[in-house]
Amino acid sequence: MLDLLTNKTDVESLRYPIIHVRGEDIEFALTHGSQYGEEYYSFVNGQNTTQGGTHLQAYREAIVKTVREHFNKSFDTKDIQSAIIGAISIRVEEPVFESQTKTKLGSLKMAPDGQTVRSFIVDFVKAQLDNFLHKNKSHAEALLKRIQQSERERKEIAGIKKLANQRARKANIHNKKLRDCKLHLSDKKKTEEERLATTVFITEGDSASGSITKARNVQTQAVFSLRGKPLNSFGQTKKIVYENEELNLLQHALNIEDGLEGLRFNRVVIATDADVDGMHIRLLLLTFFLQFFPDLVREGHLYILETPLFRVRDKKKTFYCYSEQEKRDAIKELRGKAEITRFKGLGEISPNEFGGFIGEDIRLEPVRMKNTTQITELLTYYMGKNTMQRQEFIINNLKVELDNIDEDAEIVEMEAV
Asked: Which of 131, 152, 240, 374 is the right S-S partner for 236, CB 3.0 to 4.6 Å?
């Protein structure tokens, strides 16, 4: 358990050494970092319960109760849980899971005496964590300082947050940035299939959003249009989210200000052009989500939209190609005069064509983090001031692919209009 958190976190960013406690049928680890949100890992009989469940809920509850009682202060739950990094593992007989994949633990009794998982975990964590903090004053002081820092940050942005939320509510009445859909992930009365189909495309500019808006399924697909490049949020506090109107409207459109419980779309899709500017916007959006809403990525809600780079056709057939290799294969398939259109941006693809790219055959690249990914270290490398280091990496890893095309093929290349 100790090795797990050590491998998954940036040790230098931790506020105090990892607290590690082991019992007969239970083990837990805990620390606070510098990131936003919470980061937990849970296990039952060695099985990684990625969706948590009863044991994780009880663990989070026990931490809050212990901290409040130990310091005799009624801290806000969010201030205690902010930036927390924890893990819990329990062993039980005949565990009951809420899913066939055994990724979420249900409620069950631990022993013949009728003790539940929740009461067993809460009692154990409260006793052991409180005892640890009494014996290790340096840990207790560092933990308290981190909670007080979260409290100060929350109060500092309270006034800004109030004004920003009022502005966002006013904008929602005629929000030109969001073309909403009719169904949402949070609509509990809808079927699971309908809720999981809900998607929002984050686009750059009016031309791209216009094409997607005309081609989308209005029941389940929404469009949020950015105005150029969003703010680089690397190293910023959450205060910047409320001060920046565009980022604030984006978090409101997704409804993730207070966590993912109210997330309105199952799939959040970054849909930018496949050029340098588009890639830069994609990177800025990834930075925004990883910096302030990492759980959106961890729980598999963030995607990249793949759209064709080329249209290769003759009078009888049309191929949409997503890579140079697919383009070469299409040229060979046509065996003759091929008209090749290079799509520079999403706005150059007609709505009629776009419908085929965001329908049943949609190509989405999920944004995933490895188990060993350390967000702070990752963002520092790609978005920090180490420009020369990144430049050296690009130079050493740059590969130029030559387009090998049949000399016998008569090709006409043209830009999309």
From this structure: 240
**Single-letter amino acid, residue 50:** T
Residue 370 is part of a domain; what is its CATH number?
Answer: 3.40.50.670
Same domain, 28 and 148: yes
What is the predicted pLDDT for the residue at 196? 93
Rounded CA separation 147/30 (Å): 14
**Residue 60 in tokens:** 């989070």
CA distances from 294 to 40, 104, 297, 373 (A): 12, 20, 5, 11
For the stretch 246-265, pLDDT in tens is 898 899 899 998 888 899 99
Same domain, 115 and 221: no
Model pLDDT for residues 316-361, shown as the tens digit of each residue: 899 999 988 999 999 999 986 789 999 877 878 888 888 889 988 8
Q: Look up tokens 């290769």; give the residue.
A: 312
Give the bridge partners for 179, in sequence order. Answer: 223
pTM (two decimals): 0.73
pLDDT at 73: 95
Statement to judge: residues 355 and 218 lie in one domain: yes
Q: Residue for token digits 């998954």?
A: 8
Which residues fall within 8 angstroms of residue 185, CB to CB, at 6 or more apart?
Answer: 195, 196, 198, 263, 264, 265, 266
| Count of domains observed in the chain | 2
The residue to which tokens 């929000």 are assigned:
175
**Counting every residue, how long is the chain?**
417
Domain that holds residue 270: 177-307+345-384
CA pair distance 402, 292, nearest whole angstrom: 40
Instruction: Give the long-range contacts of residues 166-173, CB within 8 A, separation 24 or more.
Output: 167/245, 167/248, 168/248, 168/249, 168/252, 171/249, 172/252
Top mean-pLDDT range of 6-15, 168-177, 291-300, 371-380: 291-300
Q: What DSSP assignment string belongs to 228-245?
A: SSPP--TT--THHHHHSH
Nearest Cα neighbor of 356 from 215, 193, 178 is 215
**Average pLDDT score over the chain:** 84
- Is residue 352 domain-shared with residue 210, that is, in the same domain? yes
